[in-house]
Fold:
Amino acid sequence: QVQLVESGGGLGQAGGSLRLSCAASGRHFSSDVRGWFRQAPGKGREFVAAINGKGDSTDSADSMKGRFTISRDNAKNTVYLQMNSLEPEDTAVYYCAADPLMSRHCYTYWGQGTQVTVSS
Structure:
């Protein structure tokens, strides 16, 4: 059974940092794209960032470039999202995802999400 499990969410302060992790099990994703999405209250799901299998190519939403960094450790089957300069608008449930192809929309595997709340 394939599982993606996010961790590292919680309460952060504006201007601060949080690091999310997403560990995969049941399948090795070293060749797959890993992505992060988020969904704020009352809003649709929003693409955050993605990284290719080798970790040498990334894509990030414009609003998060320079603040959020995606990385991966294939030996640990884990992807990370380093979030710096947090803003209250970053409050959302953050989901990790995985798929063979790089995109900002269609992913086959999804985690259950982790809540990030940023206070001002």
